[in-house]
Design brief:
By secondary structure, the protein is α/β, with parallel strands linked by helices. It contains 5 helices and 8 strands. The strands form 2 sheets. The chain has a 6-stranded mixed sheet with strand order 1-4-3-2-5-8. Strands 6-7 form a two-stranded antiparallel ribbon. Helix 1 crosses helix 2. The longest helix is centred in the N-terminal third of the chain and has 16 residues, at 13-28. The protein is globular, with a radius of gyration of 14 Å.
């Protein structure tokens, strides 16, 4: 299998974690790979606590991780580094993120409290669902 993720954000240590997570998930799960092949667009992750941001450009079966927030992201996830990693614990049931277990309820609490912000989540729910599916380690 060719390299699916190109990491151009080598100055940001978090980019390596993100790249490894995505590559591992896609190689281990054919359903995640299928979803990945249908994901197009730009998603930014802004980590306030470590003053770092990366942008992932999805191009239907390939992705590039770029330094900072570039282009016009449809989704911008703003949170602390420990909370963004927590997003990976969301379970997927019947092809959708499942928010009714401990991990899902934690994410909902963070959204309601403002600890986690996802700009564009109401405008791009399908993209957010696909992103959640490929990022989830469950």
């Amino acid at each position: 299998m060719e390299n699916l993720i190109q990491n151009n954000a080598t100055e940001t240590p978090f980019s390596y974690v993100l790249s490894e997570l995505l590559e591992s998930n896609l190689r281990q799960n054919p359903n995640k790979l299928k979803t990945f092949k249908h994901l197009y667009g730009i998603v930014a992750i802004d980590l306030k606590d470590i003053e770092a941001a990366v942008t992932i450009v999805f191009e239907g079966g390939k992705a590039r991780i770029e330094e900072g927030i570039v282009g016009k992201p449809e989704l911008v996830i703003r949170t602390d580094s420990d909370k963004v990693i927590g997003l990976n614990a969301i379970s997927i049931k019947f092809g959708l993120p499942y928010y009714f277990d401990e991990a899902g309820m934690t994410v909902l609490r963070q959204l309601l409290s403002g600890e986690l912000k996802v700009d564009g989540m109401l405008a791009h729910p399908v993209k957010l669902t696909r992103l959640t599916k490929i990022m989830s380690v469950m």
